[in-house]
């Protein structure tokens, strides 16, 4: 039985620290486990090997993730644990290239989901698409303000625009107090990705 979310809210996870996507995913997973359809749209992410992608298969059909970004050429090896990200930067350059149209496609997909039966919609790293002017703030504000009343929106990313924070019912800032990367420990499969 689906949980009734008749009063959809807007949640924002922003700030310079780690944990924004993880916190937002926790909200979406809880909703899905309670019977509410939750969808995650990942802006400017296309690695194809992150842990959250694996979790979607366990929570289907109530939980889905779709990435809109450049696919890592060694994603299969990373997924299999046979390689680590080489930090070549190609994914960042390709994701920020306006000609690839990733962010516009992601925003359209998110709008299409709002026209369906989704109860929770997570827009992961949407602030990056805004920062790099790949989508307009007006378009995102329109999506947020015209969503069906029962839909909960969750937006993530650093430097979230003030206009979106003002509309939020809850805005949380993630900041690093201490992190393994400070001691030279790189991101670990199954923990940080």
How are the elements arranged and paired?
Layout (H helix, E strand, L loop, with lengths): L9 E5 L5 H14 L4 E6 L7 H9 L3 E6 L6 H5 L10 H6 L6 H13 L5 E5 L1 H6 L5 H9 L6 E5 L5 H6 L2 E4 L20
Parallel strand pairs: 1-5, 1-6, 2-3, 2-4, 4-5
What does this entry look like structurally?
The chain has 8 helices and 6 strands, in the order E-H-E-H-E-H-H-H-E-H-H-E-H-E. It starts with 9 loop residues before the first strand and ends in a 20-residue tail after the last strand. The longest helix is centred in the first third of the chain and has 14 residues, at 20-33. The protein has helices spanning 20-33, 51-59, 75-79, 90-95, 102-114, 126-131, 137-145, 162-167; strands at residues 10-14, 38-43, 63-68, 120-124, 152-156, 170-173. It has a single domain (10-183), classed as P-loop containing nucleotide triphosphate hydrolases (Rossmann fold, 3-Layer(aba) Sandwich). It is globular. With 193 residues, it is α/β, with parallel strands linked by helices. 33% of the residues are buried. The model is unreliable at 1-5 (pLDDT under 50). It has a 6-stranded parallel β-sheet, sandwiched between helices.
What letter string, H or E per element, gives the SSE order?
A: EHEHEHHHEHHEHE
Please give the oligomerization state of what you see.
Answer: single chain
Question: Please, what is the CATH homologous superfamily?
Answer: P-loop containing nucleotide triphosphate hydrolases
Q: Can you tell me the CATH class? A: Alpha Beta
Tell me, briefly, the overall form: globular
Unreliable runs, pLDDT <50, ≥5 residues? Answer: 1-5
- How helical, in percent, are the residues? 25-40%
Quick one: biggest sheet?
Answer: 6 strands, parallel
**Order of strands in the sheet with most strands:** 3-2-4-5-1-6
The CATH topology name reads Rossmann fold
Q: Overall mean pLDDT score?
A: 89
Radius of gyration: 16 Å
Cα separation of the termini = 31 Å
Number of helices: 8
